[in-house]
Amino acid sequence: MRVIQNLYARTAVLLVLLRLSVAQYEHLGYPPGYPYPEQEEYTAPQLDPDTPRIQLRLAGQKRKHNEGRVEVFYNNQWGTVCDDDFNIHAAQVVCRELGYVEAVSWLPSSKYGKGEGPIWFDNVHCTGKEKTLAQCQSNGIGISDCKHSEDVGVVCSDKRIPGFKFLNTLPNHVENLDIHVEDVQIRAILSSYRKRIPVMEGYVEVKDGGKWKQICNKDWTQFNSRVICGMFGFPGERKYNPRVYKMFARRRKPTYWDYSVNCTGNEAHLSSCKLGQAVLEKSNGTCPRGLPVVVSCVPGKDFAPTLMTGFRKAFRQEQPLVRLRGGAIVGEGRVEVLKNGEWGTICDDKWNLLSATVVCRELGFGTAKEALSGGRLGQGMGPVHMNEVECSGFEKSITECSFNKEALGCSHEEDAAVRCNVPKMGFQERLRLSGGRNPYEGRVEVLVERNGSLVWGTVCSEGWRTMEAMVVCRQLGLGFASNAFQETWYWSGEVSADAVVMSGVRCSGTEMSLSHCLHHGAHLSCPKGGGRYAAGVSCSETAPDLVLNPQVVEQTTYMEDRPMFMLQCAYEENCLSSTSSEVPANTYRRLLRFSSQIHNNGQSDFRPKADKHSWVWHDCHRHYHSMEVFTIYDLFSLNGTKVAEGHKASFCLEDSECDEGIEKRYECANFGDQGITVGCWDTYRHDIDCQWVDITDLKPGDYIFQIIINPNYEVPESDYTNNFTKCRCRYDGHRVWMYSCHNGGSLSSETEQTFPGLHSNQVTHRQNI
């Protein structure tokens, strides 16, 4: 008996451990294509006759469509819900009543703005199992002592309840209700569009009650088409040929949804549109005008395929007035605008879906999925150009919206960002990670055509680096690369996919798909083969972003003549020019010295790639190098010729100072952990060894000085374009000045062209490989 009890006890412990091991990855979510836990099917609620009939919607100053102020339609009037006693269980009831799988959070104190009308519910107490908010205990409908400053809001999950069916309990007030369906799609009908990617033209279909249905085109407007196209990543809509669709509808009888749609055109999602009147079908089963709704969308120029370039340039933003920076995938990032030749950010005051959608459409994407605030996608540097932006949603550019030119009180901690809807290109279906411990890591396997059939295979790891891993993580929608692996023997992967099907991969880091990178094509070359030497990656939702403070360089520059006998350690670490080996010890070297203040403006800490046990000890300087080359210093003539150079190993990566409220985490004393915390900076003072350029052999004149951080991409970052700094430098033989110092990408392209040297860190790195 005791043996059986022990067996039960051990089994229970193992089950608990299993749940804990799975739970540690729950915060990561489930990436696209990874199986979700099964969800219970939707069942229509059976309400008692005495239960008040209400309808819900999410309103207010939204930053994504599945959040907002909770509003209740009752007694012919919209009203709100007070936050007194409201909790996550009540939010769960609200979200599920609206068709979402669950509630993520709730927000008190009118975070989405103050509502109007009566406060219908106060002191709400729910168990979370109720089918409607009206079934929860409360003071009674319409009984409240609250003000609209206490209006409650909720954030629901993106995922919809399978089989959800919209139930209109107030048929006489349909024009007041928002649209809530399980899903929406554009279904290609004509054979000429069925094989095209992305799908740009076809029937608009809604999934209601688990079934796909067409929408009758009675009262359908161009504004409705604009919203649908925006949802699927397209900035605009166009006319189509209705004759062929009329012929198709005659041959195959459509199944119509019960309602029409009424959008104003500036909505970011169909769920923000109003229901139109119920459609009364004719006896022959067709809608009054006899056709299902068809939309034809216009792709942005980056997604319109051409014979020559295909989709290769889809991630390279070429807009003159607005751009996105710091995002992991196409269509997301910190919003930056160009003003007076200098790029700057937007303060997040009043930042919402309307303004974010204007940015997305301007860049050739669809509507905004989310308007982010609080520097969520990293902090910029330089000026804050716009504050309190307010748009109607129909502007061609964010610069046409009204805004407050004064950015007093705004810092880069309030930088606004966006996530845009982009067309579905199908790239995720041709790549997978296999054998990893969680969905965010594994051996890279690609789907290719071999002998007329599609097969999975591995990627040769020879030359596999951070940039290639970045493209893989982006293609799978998994964020940034955190590591690129050249051996994957510890990840078994699929045995049937061991063969190498792609080799010689070289990426710039901006491609949308691994197939868009340079590679060998059909003529493979991989001496080590696949299997244990196949390429692998691990991905992360966040990444660091190192940015040098150019003003510090400008303010700390000076010149020093130092005798060779005091530079022995620097000589051993190759910090002097090559001519130093030919001169006696009693001569002097002329050094251009300066300080470097390197900020981490990203979303995660910057840590050396190498583990502690592999750090290199330098006996002369008596310290470890965690990165052998952390920065490179170059002097160029005005025609772009390199005339002097230097480099700096990471003697010690630590938090010298931090923004207010952030604690230092890294220091080098006593063989401590090295790194730079988010919101902190590491200062390499001008008076330490190798923090210089040897200009002994330099002639007086005007030059361009350049600093590159993390030049070999040993550590993944969210943005490499800002990893270099340039200054104008004047040397008269006795003194030296630095002026016009700026970071890469901070000025207009026209201004940047006047500075010789690097214009793209990635391109130069690839040329040196």
UniProtKB/TrEMBL annotation:
InterPro entries: LOX-like_protein, Lysyl_oxidase, Lysyl_oxidase_CS, SRCR, SRCR-like_dom_sf. It holds the Pfam family Lysyl_oxidase. The lysine tyrosylquinone cross-link (LTQ) is generated by condensation of the epsilon-amino group of a lysine with a topaquinone produced by oxidation of tyrosine. Disulfide bonds join 82-146, 95-156, 126-136, 263-273, 391-401, 507-517. One of its GO terms (molecular function) is protein-lysine 6-oxidase activity. It is an enzyme of class 1 (oxidoreductase). SUPFAM superfamilies: SRCR-like. Mediates the post-translational oxidative deamination of lysine residues on target proteins leading to the formation of deaminated lysine (allysine). This is Lysyl oxidase homolog. It comes from Oreochromis niloticus (Nile tilapia).
